Amino acid sequence: MSFADTDQHNDFLHLLNLPKCIVMQSGKSKQYLFTADVLWKGRDKAVVNFGATEQTISISNPPEFGGIESEGGVEHLFLSAVAGCVMRMYLIFAKKLQFQNIGFECTATGQAEMADDQYRFTYIHLYPKAYISSSDDEAKAQLAMEKARRHCMISNSINAKIIQHPEVVIGKPEAKVLPRTANGKHRNTAADNHENRKK
């Protein structure tokens, strides 16, 4: 049985906010068409608009490719799409498994390199961190994160190898805003915390 035939799929569609996409019928399954528009703003800058919404994001080339270091690019949008999709699926499975989730964060780190004469992402490391209220739900939270990894639509659509480093914390997350260093990079991410614990 495919994921599209399960109850999780109904929850998935509910969270997608489908009025922002086009639904098409093809045989026994539906097809969902999403739209994103890109408008060049001069030099290395552009603005991305998400389909029928009014939300926009400014992007530039990363410094590795001659862009501005303090601004994000399509590479960051790509990684955030993977991390965001994993979060969305985790919340769906947390609801299905009936445990109280009180916080979630996820850092995605991608390795891009030359492969088959083309630059592409070959590995993506995910550092999901789930906060729950009771240690009795730790196994459920771990299961929800594993199911989220397997059923993430974005990661299932790419050929980079996805490696997940899940963590479950008993208690509320600290209220924080990710600060930036002088070079514009975020600090104190889930990936940073994971590496610090290994030292």
Give the SSE map:
Elements (H helix, E strand, L loop, with lengths): L6 H10 L5 E5 L2 E5 L3 E6 L2 E5 L6 E4 L14 H24 L3 E15 L2 E15 L5 H14 L9 E4 L2 E4 L19 H9 L1
Parallel strand pairs: 7-8, 7-9
Antiparallel strand pairs: 1-2, 3-4, 4-5, 6-7
Specify the CATH homologous superfamily of the domain at 82-199.
K homology (KH) domain
Please report which band the strand proportion falls in: under 5%, 5-15%, 15-25%, 25-35%, 35-45% or over 45%: 25-35%
Top-tier CATH class of the domain at 82-199: Alpha Beta
Q: From the 3D coordinates, which CATH architecture of the domain at 82-199 would you assign?
A: 2-Layer Sandwich
**Would you report the number of β strands?**
9
Q: What distance lies between the first and last C-alpha atoms, to the nearest angstrom?
A: 43 Å
Radius of gyration: 18 Å
- Low-confidence segments, given as residue ranges, are 1-10
Overview features:
199 residues; alpha/beta; GMP Synthetase, Chain A, domain 3; 3-stranded antiparallel sheet; 4 helices; 29% helix
Describe the structure.
This protein is an alpha/beta fold. The protein has a domain of 118 residues: GMP Synthetase, Chain A, domain 3 (2-Layer Sandwich), CATH 3.30.300. It has four helices and nine strands; from the N terminus they run αβββββαββαββα. Strands 6, 7, 8 and 9 form a four-stranded mixed sheet that branches. A three-stranded antiparallel sheet has the order 3-4-5, with no helix packed on it. The protein is globular and about 55 Å long. The N terminus is likely disordered.
Question: Can you summarize this structure?
Answer:
The chain has four helices and nine strands; from the N terminus they run αβββββαββαββα.
